From TrEMBL:
It comes from Pseudomonas carassii. The keyword Oxidoreductase applies. Keywords: NAD, Oxidoreductase. Residues 112-290 form the D-isomer specific 2-hydroxyacid dehydrogenase NAD-binding domain. Residues 21-316 form the D-isomer specific 2-hydroxyacid dehydrogenase catalytic domain. Belongs to the D-isomer specific 2-hydroxyacid dehydrogenase family. This is 2-hydroxyacid dehydrogenase.
Amino acid sequence: MPSPRRAVFLDHQSLDLGDLDLSPLQSQFEELQLYAATTADQVAERLQGTTAVISNKVMLDAATLAAAPDLKLILVAATGTNNVDLAAARALGITVCNCQGYGTPSVAQHTLALLLALATRLCDYNQAVKAGQWAKASQFCLLDFPIVELEGKTLGLLGHGELGGAVAHLAEAFGMRVLSGQIPGRPPRADRLPLDELLPQVDALTLHCPLNEQTRHMIGANELALLKPGALVVNTARGGLIDEQALADALRSGHLGGAATDVLSVEPPAKGNPLLAADIPRLIITPHSAWGAVQARQRIVGQLAENAQAYFAGQPRRVVG
């Protein structure tokens, strides 16, 4: 019989770069096997004889779950559970728990960092200095790229949960006015503006909502056209929320003042992604790193440990599906 507390972490290097304390998690199991990464054809074998599996992004589909008769608990090392077939897990009596709110400070500050970088043309000036343009300037300064102040500008938020609220708080500290938009597929609220009312009013738009069938491509060519000329767009949520080709086109046309994204529709990015073209102006892309502060990743370890402890105590928490 397998140990009632034998677990595997299928992709621990997606979380731990050797800078985290895993002891809170290790203490919840009699045996915890760490795998740096796991390919699709390795999953079934690695689940044999395990009662708990920890996964960040490794897919756990219906067939895989059905082939793991001892599996009772799935601990997702993230908030999103799109890598788990929740219906299959439920049918098999497998409890699924995720992590929540661990990266709020990290993602909120990254969102504002991207917004500030766009407003101040930080990347353009940095490249100009490295290219020797400042050294050739006729004045003491170089002001080739228009800079805008955030104070007095209006920020539109799509997604006003814990993360959206944190971004709103930081934006207000810079003197911005914050408006919240209605998320497609959710019940209307008096304090949420429909997109066609929100978008023409904002100088910047940030996204903080989940990706589902209602929100996929919620920002497309029509929505981008509704934004003010020169508006800024920041996405630290999910790549599929924005039509990437439409965003590339809006930047090339000069309609947008700039865009920044920490996420793409396929990650790592696939060849041919329209946002990876070299000719797109005023675009910043970061590699899904907004969540990655060491403090945020350590919180995930703590929540994974809490979820395991609660499950074994008969009082599971952060249960999804």
